[in-house]
Amino acid sequence: MRVIGIDPGLRRMGWGVIEARAGRLSHVASGTCESAAGDLAARLLQLHVALTEVIRAHAPDAAAVEQTFVNRDGAATLKLGQARGVALLVPAQAGLPVAEYAPNAVKKAVVGVGHADKRQIGHMVRLTLPGAAPEGADAADALAIALAHVFLSGGAARLTAAVRAAS
Hints:
Blueprint: E1 2-7, E2 12-21, E3 24-34, H1 40-58, E4 62-66, H2 74-93, E5 98-101, H3 103-110, H4 118-128, H5 137-166
Parallel strand pairs: 1-4, 4-5
Antiparallel strand pairs: 1-2, 2-3
Helix pairs in contact: 1-2, 3-5, 4-5
């Protein structure tokens, strides 16, 4: 299974693609989609075009997107929500199933602590995915989101199988 993790952002949207095969995880690619300052609609379009190209180039089977947290700046939160809309729309347009994860759930799945900092996340991503060298925190976060999806969806699949077997 090939998974793309997406860390929504209006200026920089992190993305990371990993592959889980026969219990082994590997890094495929990671980076950021960037938008230039200016008109919001144009920035969202830039992100849409760039993320569409990433999905076309790396052909993931599923997508995982980080949920938005609300901060004190309402306007910034709304803009982030619009960028998150692009992060949800593009994989859905490609026909991919899209899962969403809270930031603390991602941190707990990857680091073991729900309040880990960016440095700890980057370190665990590099340990879990040998050879991965994400450029910046946005790409590292996106890889962590993809890892969390593999870890958490695998557990859900095992639980579903166990329930079916018990029935």
